Amino acid sequence: MQGSVAREVARDRRPPPAMADSAARYVNLWSEDEAIGEERVRAFVLILRTRGCYWADVKGCSMCGYAKDTLGRSATPGELATQLEHAMRAYRGEPYVKIYTSGSFLDDREVDPASRRAIVATFGAKARRILFETLPEFATEATLAPLRDAFAGELEVAEGLESTQPEVLRRLINKGSPPSEYFAASERIRALGIRSKGYLLLKPPYLTEEEAVADVLASIAEAAPRFDTLSVNPVHIQNGTVVEWLFRRGRYRPPWLWSLVHVMQEGAKIRGSTRLVTFPTAGGLPRGPHNCRTCDRAVLAALEEASLSQRFDGLSELDCACRADYRSLGRLEALGVEA
Ligand code: SF4
Ligand SMILES: [Zn+2]
Fold this sequence. Notes:
The protein has 339 residues and is α/β, with parallel strands linked by helices. It has one domain: Aldolase class I (TIM Barrel), CATH 3.20.20. Helix content is 40%, strand content 16%. The chain contains 13 helices and eight strands. Strands 1-2-3-4-5-6-7-8 form an eight-stranded mixed beta sheet. Helix 9 (209-223) links the parallel strand 6 (195-202) and strand 7. The longest helix is centred in the middle third of the chain and has 15 residues, at 209-223. Zinc ion binds next to loops.
């Protein structure tokens, strides 16, 4: 069943090849709170419109709907330059810059090598840290060294590791590479003096809430020595995904924020010197991680504060009547009862 759902979902995921006018427009940009070490800073976030992730064409991950934001073909260097030029009008010298492409910044089919260097160099005068994302196979000395040389600040490369359990990664998330390839890429990244960040997914489909918590905690334990930062990303329902297919049929609930609180509290004890952060998307919304409506805002604020400060004791002060429901859900799931 899983395979046919994935095929059905993948068929209408990618848009037809785009016209030139949309190729000149980036997908989105905004500014957000971040931290570099102990210093609170603003981060400039830019999503470029590119060809998007090749893996989304091959199979696609069960929770990822980013293909919707892509061009359906490669962007030309000129189109990428125009997107950047438009985006720079909104850049206010934020020290932290995050460049996303709905795929891999280091895949030549998404961003050609000269454009990559030009983008990094454009922020060079003001940014202190630039982050971009990639699949592990593209994180090589050949792609990374020219970028490191084009930017005087610190580079940070993020990989969507999601889970260190090979079966969770392969069967539930549909990733194309095993965890060992993410670990190897992280080693290559660090060997070049570049920061390495890993994303861990909280609650892939087909896991109970309890199993999902155990999966992330096991992943933190195994991944922490291999990454400088680990970011726990709770699933939110994106359009055109397997997770949405299940959600619409009442067979998937995004994770509880209490699960995330527990993961951060317990993860903080085993992360060593690695930063452990979470900045949930769609937090408090029905399609994002949520508790009851009453406590969502306070829980999200405490999670953000813990992520920025790396102090997790504030999380133990959180409580709400819905926490009892959450605990009984765990007991029901353990008995095999669908909530
Ligand atoms: S999660 Fe990453 S690897 Fe998977 S389809 Fe989306 S962009 Fe590609
Ligand atoms: Zn509540």
